[in-house]
Amino acid sequence: MxxxxxxxxxxxxxxxxxxxILVAASFLLRMIPFIYSYTTLIRIIGFLLLGTxxxxxxxxxxxxxxxxxxxxxxVQLADARTKAAKANVExxxxxxxxxxxxxxxxxxxxxxxxxxxxxxxxxxxxxPDVVHAHNLAAELSGDSEPDKP
Length: 149
What we know:
By secondary structure, this protein is an all-alpha fold. Helices cover 77% and strands 0% of the residues. It has helices spanning 2-6, 9-28, 39-115, 128-139. The protein is rod-shaped.
């Protein structure tokens, strides 16, 4: 309701209250002879103000209810963003840790193969001992030494 953005809340309450007062006054002032001729006009204006006031009060209540829902959703959004930030940190940490482990294992394999390079002959035939050594090096976690065959 665009009218709610223009009118202050107090003015909306005053419209409703003036409608109630005018309707009540139209019934009470009927007993005074010189005002009796205006009671119908007062009653019509009172009911118009009362209806307009009720309509605006409903719009105001709806606007306040929506503001409460928006506030709740903003709190949920903030919680979701916090959880997402924590999850992103965990994923990055796990990725860096896994990368370090793979790099360490790869370095261990390279070192072990270099140490056993003289066992490979010029024809590039690989003896079963070299294959076994390579397999042991690949299984290393980086902190243990392979068993010598």
